[in-house]
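TICKET: design request
STATUS: open
ATTACHED STRUCTURE:
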């Protein structure tokens, strides 16, 4: 299906969908009333969202109960439909005139177990073990990226904090993102084009002729050119707070990579305080948290620096023909735009599928793709 775009838009296709309400097919009942169906497929710890807008001109619609589950499948007539998720209804609206009903569902029930507060201390464990235990008590299946699973956690407290908030905090400090899809609690390294197992998604090539409209934006790179993080050196007699430094490699860049962080030359160790800077020291953002170890400081600074770099430039594109095979974290190459846009490697951050009387389209929100192993750690 990745090759479908190469066939152009000459082939007119008719969208098709299937809606299951608590395992009951309601498609035929919904079809005459459907005004629009929109699904937001998010990457981070923002629930995927389903929005159904239905005509209630005759006043016969019975409002659905909250907590009811809807499964959605979308595709083209004559082909197998793709499952786009299971959603829990948490909001129902009725507006008029003309009368219409709006049903909103989310992929994870944040009013349920994930939102329950817990008091717990974690000792001598790993990031993967913590996610596994929390997923189990929330009735979810854990899926943790291999590069994150074995990260050692010496001690951390969850003090009257919801599992959702605690896991988000853990993800941020380790340069990761958390999401819930298909009853799976997933922890990934964002912007790498990899799934939770660390496997690479196949790259998608999109021509400008495939798009309906687009928007490109370059952020102000001079805001921050690096990140610093501190750690408490308990081995020192006075428990001194130390810093560690990371700099870009000075290797020559190709035109395609110009303007993006690549790797760095190691610097010689200097005698006094160790400092970690992700990037150069011209305009550095200092993380206020003091971490328990050098390794934790490195992961936190690298995660924040990756976030800054991913959002240096953003690009959005609406495909005139919807594609259910494209998901967040899919790597993308585009062609037919400005050179800087075409030369930039992109990763999908969010996909919005929309289906109405005008057809089926998909909007892609993209960010700069980050490569692994960009930096070498050095001490001052």
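STATUS: resolved
RESOLUTION: sequence designed for all positions
ATTACHED SEQUENCE:
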């Amino acid at each position: 299906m990745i090759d479908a775009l190469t066939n152009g838009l000459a082939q007119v296709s008719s969208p098709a969908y299937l809606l299951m309400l608590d395992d009951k097919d309601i498609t035929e009942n919904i079809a005459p009333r459907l005004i629009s169906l929109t699904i937001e497929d998010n990457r981070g710890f923002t629930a995927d969202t389903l929005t159904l807008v239905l005509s209630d001109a005759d006043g016969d619609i019975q409002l659905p109960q909250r907590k009811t589950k809807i499964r959605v499948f979308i595709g083209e007539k004559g082909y197998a439909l793709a499952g786009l998720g299971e959603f829990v209804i948490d909001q129902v609206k009725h507006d008029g005139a003309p009368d219409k009903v709006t049903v909103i569902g989310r992929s994870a029930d944040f009013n349920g177990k994930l939102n329950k507060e817990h008091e717990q201390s974690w000792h001598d464990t790993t990031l993967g073990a913590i996610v596994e235990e929390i997923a189990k008590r929330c009735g979810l299946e854990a899926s943790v990226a291999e590069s994150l699973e074995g990260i050692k956690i010496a001690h951390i407290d969850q003090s009257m904090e919801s599992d959702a908030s605690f896991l988000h905090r853990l993800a941020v400090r380790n340069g990761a993102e958390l999401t819930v899809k298909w009853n799976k609690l997933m922890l990934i390294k964002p912007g790498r084009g990899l799934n939770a197992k660390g496997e690479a998604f196949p790259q998608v090539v999109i021509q400008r002729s495939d798009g309906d409209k687009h928007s490109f934006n370059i952020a102000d790179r001079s805001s921050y050119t690096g990140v610093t993080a501190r750690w408490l050196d308990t081995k020192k007699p006075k428990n001194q707070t130390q810093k560690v430094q990371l700099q870009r490699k000075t290797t020559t860049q190709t035109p395609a990579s110009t303007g993006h962080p690549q790797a760095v030359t190691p610097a010689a160790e200097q005698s006094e305080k160790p400092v970690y800077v992700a990037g150069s020291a011209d305009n550095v953002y200092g993380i206020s948290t003091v971490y328990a170890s050098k390794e934790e400081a490195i992961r936190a600074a690298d995660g924040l620096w990756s976030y800054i770099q991913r959002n240096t430039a953003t690009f959005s594109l609406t495909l005139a023909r919807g594609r259910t095979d494209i998901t967040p974290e899919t790597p993308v190459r585009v062609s037919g735009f400005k050179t800087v846009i075409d030369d930039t490697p992109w990763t999908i951050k969010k996909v919005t599928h929309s289906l109405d009387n005008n057809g089926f389209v998909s909007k892609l929100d993209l960010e700069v793709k980050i490569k692994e192993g960009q930096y070498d750690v050095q001490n001052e």
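CLOSING REMARK: The chain has six helices and 23 strands. The longest strand covers residues 82-95.
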